[in-house]
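User: My collaborator sent over this chain with a note saying "see what the structure looks like." That's all I know about it. Can you take a look?
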Amino acid sequence: MVLLLTSMLLAQAPGVSVSPDFEVGVAASNLTGSPGIDTPELINVTALNGFSGNVSLTLSPSAGVYASLIPYCYCVIVNSTTPSNDAQMLMTAPNPGTYTVNVTGTEGSVSHKVTITYKVIPYSADDFGLYVPMPFDMIRGSTEHFHVSLQGLKSFAWTGAQTIHLKEGSLPRGLITSLSLATIVIQFSAPAGSYTSDINVTAPSTIPLGQYTVFVSATNGTITHLRLINVNVQAAFAI
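Assistant: Without extra context I'll predict from the sequence alone. Here is the result:
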């Protein structure tokens, strides 16, 4: 499972008390998109050292890029019952370029920030497509399997063998995810689905019921694409 990039690091020396706090993270700190096309991102807020509170999220995009939270909820609740919670966001820019979006979480006088670098490349540039399944339901205590597909776009696959590195995870924490292939080599132009990796998603029998998000990222050089899959964990039907 991929680790989140967080806005802070905690180091506790023996005998030193640590105050309740929280951290803000994202699924990928560097993302690539196309002009005028929404690019998703996943924000996570995690309670530390017994923290409990409502963390307000604010987005500060640089000039030329637009960012919004979805749904339009700007407050994430974390506590002992829900120590980790997430929010989805979208970014879009009409013109190629490199942009930044600062995500700040604030509760009272405490705030933490994480920065996303968003690179928008022209349609004529070499690129690849990342395709994931639609949202799905699963029963607590079960395991689901699905495919992640890759496709070379433009002349991407003709510039020699291209290696794509895949990572996955889920938020809030609780689902167990694993990849059958963490690396895929694209050697020639082919339809979507010709290059696939299987992902197993397990909902442990003790996991809280509700909504989770599985995220998959694919990276080649400076290009990183991220896709999100909403998962609804339900109780088993009583007989």
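A starting point for your reply to your collaborator: DSSP finds no helices and 19 strands in the chain.
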